[in-house]
Automatic annotation (TrEMBL):
<dbReference type="InterPro" id="IPR013149">
    <property type="entry name" value="ADH-like_C"/>
</dbReference>
<feature type="domain" description="Enoyl reductase (ER)">
    <location>
        <begin position="11"/>
        <end position="322"/>
    </location>
</feature>
<dbReference type="InterPro" id="IPR036291">
    <property type="entry name" value="NAD(P)-bd_dom_sf"/>
</dbReference>
<dbReference type="Pfam" id="PF00107">
    <property type="entry name" value="ADH_zinc_N"/>
</dbReference>
<dbReference type="InterPro" id="IPR002364">
    <property type="entry name" value="Quin_OxRdtase/zeta-crystal_CS"/>
</dbReference>
<dbReference type="InterPro" id="IPR047618">
    <property type="entry name" value="QOR-like"/>
</dbReference>
<dbReference type="InterPro" id="IPR011032">
    <property type="entry name" value="GroES-like_sf"/>
</dbReference>
<dbReference type="GO" id="GO:0008270">
    <property type="term" value="F:zinc ion binding"/>
</dbReference>
<keyword id="KW-0560">Oxidoreductase</keyword>
<dbReference type="InterPro" id="IPR013154">
    <property type="entry name" value="ADH-like_N"/>
</dbReference>
<dbReference type="GO" id="GO:0005829">
    <property type="term" value="C:cytosol"/>
</dbReference>
<dbReference type="InterPro" id="IPR020843">
    <property type="entry name" value="ER"/>
</dbReference>
<keyword id="KW-0521">NADP</keyword>
<dbReference type="Pfam" id="PF08240">
    <property type="entry name" value="ADH_N"/>
</dbReference>
<dbReference type="GO" id="GO:0035925">
    <property type="term" value="F:mRNA 3'-UTR AU-rich region binding"/>
</dbReference>
<dbReference type="GO" id="GO:0003960">
    <property type="term" value="F:quinone reductase (NADPH) activity"/>
</dbReference>
<protein>
    <submittedName>
        <fullName>Quinone oxidoreductase</fullName>
    </submittedName>
</protein>
Length: 324
């Protein structure tokens, strides 16, 4: 039997429940994976609450690592026993084993553990598309990255610092400020004590930054716009404090002919070429030491409810994985 976590309706963490199911043999183009480690991500809570609509019932989770145990017809490039991972779904990762299209998986190279792959792929691929392709950051730039001590934020601090970029990061506690600094963040702002917009302008001598990466959402959006240079880019890619309120397009003109984008990882790995580009950069960064996992929480898959509670209460830092 396969052990899964299922949500039958939208709601709080308690809508998640364990269930035993029987998987079919993989059909054409599909593989079966025995999963060894599963990534926990904030987007999982958006699906569970209905903020990002999905059909119920469903099994949450967009990333995991594991071993191929069966292969369907017409699958090439993979074989039984391969260690593989996937960074962007489809949904269904909260499971001891699963069926998944071969087009969505990549092999884990030697030197990268299953736990590192599960902890780093979605978040690492998020940092890759944000900083290489949404707004291509270059050496010498200064950027503002919100939630710098979170799973994505720590990877961004490491990777950007390794690329010669100055990182200003916001955090919610002094302990998280120290964690962000230890991972390459050059300037930390504790938004519970300081006005982050004022501090950014102070740090940049009134110039502002060319780009803001904001996964916090409602609480930081307007202040983030005021951190930008003329023709700066506002990248809002998450909603930890709720969705951003609508704004008139003219506001972007008033604040300096700003660019505003709301990207998602799925659109940046939608083709096989993009998936291999994105994951290849992440694997290279892991292997050359530019990014390292910092798995600070491990939960049994059966404890997914508690994992979601802790995540939403901001009790977690670094990366979190679920173990089947």
């Amino acid at each position: 039997m396969t052990y899964i976590i299922e949500a039958t309706k939208a709601g709080g963490p308690d809508v998640l429940a364990a269930k035993d199911v029987t998987l079919e043999t993989p059909s054409a183009g599909m593989v079966k994976i025995q999963q060894t480690a599963i990534g926990l991500n904030y987007i999982d809570t958006y699906h569970r609450t209905g903020l990002y609509p999905v059909p119920f019932p469903f099994t949450p989770g967009l990333e995991a690592a594991g071993i191929i145990t069966e292969i369907g017809a017409d699958v090439t490039g993979f074989q039984v026993g391969d260690r593989v991972t996937y960074p962007a779904g489809p949904l269904g990762a909260y499971a001891s084993e699963r069926l998944i299209p071969a087009a969505n998986i990549v092999k884990i190279p030697e030197g990268v553990s299953d736990e590192d792959a599960a902890a780093l792929m979605l978040k690492g691929c998020t940092v890759e598309y944000l900083t290489y392709r949404t707004y291509p950051v270059k050496e010498g730039d200064t950027v503002l990255f919100h939630a710098a001590a979170g799973g994505v934020g720590l990877i961004a601090c490491q990777w950007l610092s390794a690329r010669g970029v100055t990182v200003i990061g916001t955090v919610g506690t002094d302990a998280k400020a120290e964690l962000a600094k230890a991972n390459g963040c050059h300037h930390t702002i504790n938004y519970s004590k300081e006005n982050f917009t004022d501090k950014v302008m102070e740090i940049t001598n009134g110039e502002g930054v060319p780009v803001v990466y904001d996964s916090v959402g409602k609480d930081t959006f307007m202040g983030s716009l005021d951190c930008l240079q003329r023709r700066g880019t506002m990248v809002t890619y998450g909603n930890a404090t709720g969705p951003v309120d609508p704004i008139p397009p003219g506001l972007l003109a008033v604040k300096g002919s700003l660019f505003l984008t709301r990207p998602t990882l799925m659109d940046y790995v939608a083709t096989r070429e993009d998936l291999e580009l994105c994951t290849g950069r992440v694997f290279s960064a892991i292997k050359d030491g530019s990014i390292k996992s910092d798995i600070r929480q491990r939960y049994a898959l059966k404890d997914a409810v508690q994992a979601h509670k802790d995540l939403e209460a901001r009790k977690t830092s670094g990366q979190t994985i679920l173990l089947p």
